[in-house]
Amino acid sequence: xxxxxxxxxxxxxxxxxxxxxxxxxxxxxxxxxxxxxxxxxxxxxxxxxxxxxxxxxxxxxxxxxxxxxxxxxxxxxxxxxxxxxxxxxxxxxxxxxxxxxxxxxxxxx
Length: 109
Prior knowledge:
By secondary structure, this protein is α/β, with parallel strands linked by helices. Helix content is 27%, strand content 20%. α1 (23-33) packs across α3. It is elongated.
């Protein structure tokens, strides 16, 4: 199966992101860009996890979809030719940047 994915996404709970970055806007943006699988990002954040549980439903194994009624509303913001199924994969990022003794440190391999 071929698909286009973007797995490095941050939620509205992440620093330096739009406070409007929610599951619905990810669904709309993915369709406009031809992306069929999108990472949820920030899955360990309690607020984001709650939102995901409220708005997504299981689809194929390991993937989730926006609830049908919400997806229909979001699809109205997408040109008809771009509309397609979007699936979400639960993802998180491992950050290797931290502060110690007042300095920013980066772990390198």
